[in-house]
Design brief:
single chain; alpha+beta
Amino acid sequence: MKLATLQAQLPDFEIRLLTLADQEALLKLEQSNPRYHQYFSPEPLTMTEVQHDLTAHPDELAALQANITAIQLTRVTADEGVARFWQKLGFEDGNQLFLPLKAGGRLAVTTMTRLLQ
């Protein structure tokens, strides 16, 4: 799906590709919610981690050529504020999963889906 098509589906958002030029802004955004980062790592968030997030991609890129009919995300199940935010944007709860954490234990997460028209 082209970015313009996705932008038309989600007019309340600015849809664009993020690049390494966005890494400082992304670091600040992620630092604004330290609790979320602590779910996944006891270590402080670093610029190296942000750079990795911006450049990581699946080994198999063929899926990017498919017709995209939905957007799916995963949220921390216990975070009701995040759930309300995405529900207001038309996302619906799906399955609950448990992710293993680096520091031990596991974290309950819920998938959310929004169908695109």
